[in-house]
Amino acid sequence: MIHPSSLIPVKQPTSEDIQRFFPVHMQPAKTYAVDALDGEIIKLNQNESPYDWPLEIKERVCKKLLSQSWNTYPPPYPLQLEHHIANLCGVEKGSVLAVPGSSRLLDILMSYLGLAHKSRWVILSPSFALYEHLAQSMGLKYIHWPLESDFSFSLDTLPSLCSGDVVLLATPNNPTGTQLSYDMLNNLVSRYPEVLWVCDSAYYEYSDQPYEKLLKQHSNLVIMKTFSKSFGAAGLRFGYLLAAKPYIERLRVGLLPFSFNHLSLLAIEEVLSDPHILESFQSHSRTVTCEREKMYQNIKDISLRNPFDITPSKANFLFLYWQDFTECKKVYETLKKDNILARMFTHDPTIKASMRVSIGTPQHNELFVKSLSRIYSP
Predict the structure, then answer these.
(1) Sheet harboring 196-200: ordered strands across?
(2) pLDDT tens, 310-336?
(3) Separation of CA 294 from chain center
């Protein structure tokens, strides 16, 4: 190790240098921060699956990983895995683009369609904060599609669309849990064939509205998905896009070769090649969905007597909202004292007095409800 006194000091640029090399809209990034607590916590703040992979599966993957040569690159692109994913989703080969995390997919889409092609973006509001963050950091032209006061989707609030626009929406939506119906999406992509509709369906396994069949009728639809949620693989960073072949071929240009590592490729391959593992993940999704409905009803009962409300959800989380920010903050901090972490949204003025609660294990969900009941006990 080099002694601190021997470290080379790096000369800092002048403000003129920064402006010369970086666009004005590209301000210093705010570090993504997640609250942390000491000791044993109930982590309900990041929409992760409450179920880890069985040790047996991890050991099988690790055994295969040990047999790999770590000094060699993986395949440039995981084409074979993309074929397996196509079968899983029921679409033809060539219609899948795998990426190391769906956040990278957003980066590719916005870079190529926003920066290169100068498309205007229409972003749902409120929604996943990364959408607007990327649009701002890239200096893209964008406008909002506001949700209704009950956080439902509405054609009445949809702005006027132009040829070449790109509409980006999460459905089920994060953080509200509300969902665009299959019929409404079908209506939109039919009505606006010269608009590209990008559906982030990270939570679709917890809903009853899969959109894949619409790909047969509409080439102006692309669907983003991930293995991070219902497959419990957030730590492996593996997502994918479903779209028409010409779109896949063009977007692949934005994905650098050798972007994946051996571990993530082997792990996802293990899952897709074993129907018993797939069934176990589907079973977990059904459990989470049942827990969500039970938890929703319990929290709804509490809200009827107290100053907050909750939206019905089609994702693996619930969305609670208050009229008063101070009251919301008080509940959040009290939950933290009980070692329960939820998620507040102070960055977004439209939902500042709100909280998103991920669905955890049945035991963790029960503890959350009990803690909320104590906060509002007479």
Answers:
(1) 96-99, 239-242, 221-226, 196-200, 166-170, 121-125, 142-146
(2) 999 999 999 999 999 999 999 999 999
(3) 23
Alpha-carbon gap, residue 141 to 217, rounded angstroms? 29
Place of tokens 């899948």: 96
Sequence spans of domains, the chain: 69-274
The percentage of the chain sitting over the pLDDT mark of 70, rounded to a whole number, equals 96
Residues 29, 132, 151, 185: is their CA dihedral positive or negative? negative
* Whether 95 contacts 246, CB under 8 Å: no
The residue-averaged pLDDT of 8-34 equals 78
The DSSP code for 73 is -
Q: Are strands 343-344 and 42-43 parallel, antiparallel or unpaired?
A: unpaired
Q: Which CATH number fits domain 69-274: 3.40.50.2300, 2.40.160.10, 3.40.640.10, 3.40.30.10?
A: 3.40.640.10
Token code pair at residue 138: 């890239």
User: Rounded to the nearest 5°, which phi and psi values hold at 358?
Assistant: -70, 150
Rounded distance, CA 268 to CA 228, Å? 11
From 184, 175, 150, 151, select the one nearest 167 (Cα to Cα).
184
